[in-house]
Amino acid sequence: xxxKGYVNPQLVISVEELKDNLNDESFCIVDTxxxxxxxxGHIPGALHLDLFGLSLINxxxxxxxxxxxxxxxxxxxxxxxxxxxxxxxxxxxxxxxxRGLWFCEYLxxxxxxxxxxxxxxxxxADGAVSTEGVEPPEVPPFPIEAKRSIHMDADVIHxxxxxxxxxxxxTRTDDEHYGRVARxxxxxxxxxSIHIEWLNNLDETGAFKxxxxxxxxxxxxxxxxxxxxxxx
Length: 232
What we know:
Radius of gyration: 18 Å
Oligomer: single chain
Largest sheet: 5 strands, parallel
Distance between the termini: 26 Å
């Protein structure tokens, strides 16, 4: 992935690299798509864990700690081995696979990657496809070494809004940002938010844009490295 110019290229893995190392026993591959899509064809050996319905309304410490304990337990039950490199994918470089990667990072498992372009890119590159379900292996408990600095609860966000170097980044759709659609209790956006829908990070194939393209897009709206950016 060095060709895209990322500062942290280890966060993603290309289809070519995964194809070349598909039998690498140090990899744990996780398919986050809906069950029917997984059963109709997936990357051979991939475990299944649909992360779409896992969310939390109250993100204050006590509730959030309990939620993340549940996530760690779920990872163990689904066979995710924390001693391996955990690779997440969905149909494109999407939000469910990204959520899986973020959960790993928060729990303290930094050895995790996202398949750039997802299953769509895999199929386009003639990657092998299996319709056999994978039984989750028995694995040790998923440890929690919480990286609290990468999460912000609502109270902290609220007190940060008047800081010049703090930027709330709204990654939702236009309709959600401008209050035409409400998927929360109230419609609208956090005051002062900059809006870039997450799909704008991807090219026409569903893979991530290059570092230069992403950097230009964010700098144009005032998101620069010296600022603290809170994505939601």
